[in-house]
Each structure stands twice: as structure tokens, then as C-alpha cells.
Amino acid sequence: MSKLKVVIVDPQLMFVQTLTSKLESQNEVPLEVISHFKSGENIRQNLSRNLDIDLLLIELNLAGEDGLELIPTIRKYFRELKIMVLTNYDDYKYVKEALINGADGYILKSNDFDDLLEGIQELQKNNTFIAKGLHITPPSSSKRMLQNGKNSRYEDRFIIKRKLTKREHEVLALIAQAKNNKEIAEQLFISDQTVCVHRKNIMRKLGVRNTVNLIKLALEHQLVQ
């Protein structure tokens, strides 16, 4: 039986090294990790190389483009490739969006390693795999309150970024360049009033009250390039 050719997309080198070692040393699923990419840009640069891949394990929180946005692009190049999201984010909205975008499975890094092997086997049978504890519909109200409380305390770049629309990201990038509403409006071909609305919505969503703190948060969490 030939080995599955696996690619891992994840920015955490130590995690990747540990995972690679565990995957290649187990005997249940013959496989070989042939490459590792840190970011969406890295894998985009290699998409045209006609890589011979069977399975892609992808983190959602990547530098620049996030994993949810990257999955449809990968799917265009590799129709038969099995894509498994391997991440820390358990929000049902991310699970649902990942599957809609073309992922075949979704599992958390906190799951047991045997769960990952089970998921890989299910994908090879052309089945969709969602690890235990995950949902594609809203959980019960008590679980949702706990989840929302956790996110409000421990929000990171990925979660913060997903709060904003594409247009709001464009406006935020220009705000970070110290451009005023009129300058932003001219560059984006929208009215000053629309820019003002976007600015207020961005500040509300990110929980800041002035432009200085907005720019500081954007830079600290690498929300702008």
C-alpha cells in the first residue's frame, strides 16, 4: 500500500515537527509528510508546481490570508485533495464555513491524536469528518455563553480579523496610514459619510474609542500590512 503524501500548513514550527514525527511513526495510516508551509503566501507560491499531494492539514490562523480564505483557492488547484482543518478554533461558524469552502474535515489541536488518525481514515473513504465536540449549528445557549466569554478574554488576530468586512479592512488599512476621512473616501471612491460609518463600525467591533488606540490595536494584531 502506497503512503499518503501529506502537506502541513501551519506557522508553528515546533508543533509541525512534533506532529510530523507522530504521523510518520504510527502504523495505522501509512503516510509521509512531504512539505510544510508557514503561510498562505508560501503555499500559493507552490500551487503551480503540480505537487503530488493526497492530504493537506491546515491551520486557520495564518499570516496574511487566513485558512478559511485559502481553502477555496487550494480546492481549485487540487480537486481530489483531502483537506483537513487542524486548528484551535471551535466556533461552529468556522466549522461550517470551512466545509462550505471546500474542506473535507475539521478537528481541534486539543483533540486526541487517535481522533486525527480516525479523521484521516474517514477522509480516505470519501467521508466528511467533524471531530467530537464540534458543531456546524449553534450550540445550546449555556455552551454559547461559555464560548463567548472565553473569546472575549482571549481574542487573537484571527478572531479579531474575522469581525471585519472586506471594506472595513480596506478602510482600517488606510486609517493606519494616518489618512483622514476625505482622503480615504477619494481613494476608495466612496463618500466621506460612508467612511465615517465604516470608521465607527470598526471601532465598535474592535472595542476601541479613538483612532490612536485603533491604529495601535491594528498594528499589534497585524490586521494591516
Describe this protein's structure.
It contains 11 helices and 6 strands. With 225 residues, it is of the alpha/beta class. The radius of gyration is 20 Å and the shape is elongated. The chain starts with a strand and ends in a 5-residue tail after the last helix.
Q: Give the tally of β-strands.
A: 6
Q: Class of the largest domain in CATH?
A: Alpha Beta
Shape: elongated
Quickly give the CATH architecture of the largest domain. Answer: 3-Layer(aba) Sandwich
Q: Give the class from helix and strand content and strand pairing.
A: alpha/beta
The percentage of residues in β strands lies in 5-15%
Layout: helices, strands, pairs:
Elements: E1 4-9, H1 13-25, E2 31-37, H2 40-46, E3 55-58, H3 67-77, E4 82-87, H4 92-101, E5 105-108, H5 113-124, E6 129-130, H6 141-153, H7 157-162, H8 166-175, H9 181-188, H10 192-206, H11 211-220
Parallel strand pairs: 1-2, 1-3, 3-4, 4-5, 5-6
